[in-house]
Amino acid sequence: MKRREFIKTTGTAVAGAIIFPNISFPKRNPKNVVIIGAGISGLAAAYKLKQNGMNATIIEARNRIGGRIFTHTFNQENLTCELGAEWVGASHTRLIELCKEFGLELLNHQFETHLILDNQYKKAGEWDFTPEWNTKYQALLNQFNALPPESEAKKQYDKLDWWRFLVNAGISEKDLEIRELLDSTDFGESIRQVSAYAGISEYAESSEKNEMDYHIKEGNNQIIFKLAEAVGSDNIILKTSIEKVEQRNDSVTVYCANGNRYEADNVICTVPTYSLLKINWQPKLSNDYFDALNELQYSRIIKISVLFSERFWKNESLDMITDTLPHYFFHSTKNQDGKKGILTSYATGDRAYILSKMKNEEKIREVCKTLKSAFGDVEKYAERAVNYYWGSDDFTKGAYAIYNKHQWLNVRETLNKNHGRVYFAGEHLADWQGFMEGAINSGEDAVEKILISLK
Ligand SMILES: Cc1cc2nc3c(=O)[nH]c(=O)nc-3n(C[C@H](O)[C@H](O)[C@H](O)COP(=O)(O)OP(=O)(O)OC[C@H]3O[C@@H](n4cnc5c(N)ncnc54)[C@H](O)[C@@H]3O)c2cc1C
User: Fold this and answer.
1) Domain map of the chain by residue range?
2) What distance in Å separates the CA atoms of residue 441 and residue 447, rounded to the nearest whole number?
3) Mutational pocket test of ligand 1: of 68, 271, 353, the residue with most ligand atoms within 8 Å of the beta carbon
4) CA–centroid distance, residue 437 to ligand 1 (Å)
5) How many A from CA of 371 to the centre of ligand 1?
6) Which of 4, 22, 67, 383 is most buried by a 10 A CB count?
7) CA-to-CA distance for 83 and 85, rounded, in angstroms?
8) What pLDDT score does 15 carry?
9) Residue 54 in contact with residue 32, Cβ under 8 Å?
10) Cα dihedral sign, 259-234-239-35
11) pLDDT at 144
């Protein structure tokens, strides 16, 4: 039997309306699903549908698959860096399982964190939080871990932001400054904008290196290519943006900006909230759902990957937190052979925005200026750079969702509700929110819900 049973018709756009030729549709296979978005969430959902004998068509607005997984290769040097997702966490069991299944090798991507604060450079091991805070912090994490899952006591953490929580716990000014610098790289904005629930669960439940453990050999986009291959490239339609989703009793019609439309029994929508709000939903989404979409913000992150003619930093496992504009650095080409190497600056929030406004040469200069207190004048080694500012990405307007106080338990719960035959997925909805793992889990969960609805 033919795998794809989708009905694709081309309409004519007249004064903003789409008029379709008067054709009769053949009877549909009752298990057709349209997936909006070919990020890892959409691809994982399609793969699971295929494994369950169902048909999936993925429709993607960009001219590439992968969404926020965005590997860049410096072709001449054959060195790669990630402009989107970087680390695979040791606790990210589903992603690790998929890598195994597809024969992808995971390379160690753990680092030893150096520090530049107030213009003073300290190597890993030469700096730390105060002993009092280390003891207190561990006790706070243990206390959280000891609470029963989904208990009222756990929910209380969502009532305040992570910064306030730490201040209330008595953190010193200096310890707080370093926590802010470190944790804002995880959340993508100041910890004043992060729910304490999101904050404490991130650090209490994560691997020792905070899920910064591995990287997929030859780039994280390898998992994207493998999933796409498994799903079948003829089931993935690129450069096609969904504008409208209309439901009737027994089917859903998805309308594309180019006039095409697709009919399905179910839709899995994996797009970030910014894109989701632009889709015309018929019938409309509930007011609660709209409110939740409008509430959720995404973090501003810029990655600037500079190719240097020499690995002057010597230490293959270098990463470094700083109080300067480029914010955080790490060695992208760890485990990649070559004399040349890439250091990536990863800046968040206002820092990211300010850097995004600079010309490419200015960005490189800013990076080298920061590195000076650790390695001297390194601008002579800088060859070229690539960068990507997620704050102005056309489809996300941010890197990943950032749950503020009162949002983790309310907003996320609302956004997880299905809209009739439409199920939502994507990084922003998952327990492992902000990670590839979460995006996969949410896509697979959406399929699970469809399977249950068919029983
Ligand atoms: C800078 C940065 C650093 C990160 N670091 C890490 C990390 O170290 N480790 C980690 O695990 N994760 C990391 N992440 C997060 C990870 O990249 C995401 O969680 C994951 O890739 C999200 O996948 P997704 O499928 O949910 O969304 P996306 O990848 O955003 O996929 C959604 C797709 O929908 C498409 N789309 C949008 N609107 C429409 C429309 N109307 N019609 C059709 N298609 C549409 C988009 O183009 C996009 O391709 C990082 C992300 C960024 C940006």
Assistant:
1) 8-67+219-296+405-454, 113-204
2) 10
3) 68
4) 11
5) 30
6) 67
7) 7
8) 27
9) yes
10) positive
11) 96
Q: Which fold does the domain 8-67+219-296+405-454 belong to in CATH?
A: FAD/NAD(P)-binding domain (3.50.50)
Atom number in ligand 1 closest to CA 87: 8
Residue 110 has what DSSP assignment?
A: -
Contact 18, 12 (CB under 8 A): yes
Specify the ligand 1 atom closest to the Cα of 399.
Answer: 53
Per-residue tokens: 205: 């439940």
Q: How much is the pLDDT for 162?
A: 98
Q: Is beta strand 236-237 parallel, antiparallel or unpaired with respect to 55-59? A: parallel
Q: Which residue, 5, 3, 16, is CA-closest to 255?
A: 16
CA 124 – CA 137 distance, rounded (Å): 20
Q: Is domain 113-204 in CATH 1.10.405.10, yes or no? A: yes
Low-confidence ranges of the chain (pLDDT < 70): 1-30
Specify whether the CB–CB gap between 187 and 402 falls below 8 A.
Answer: yes
| Residue written as token pair 């068919």 | 454
Residue 60 and residue 240 in contact, taking contact as beta carbons nearer than 8 Å: yes
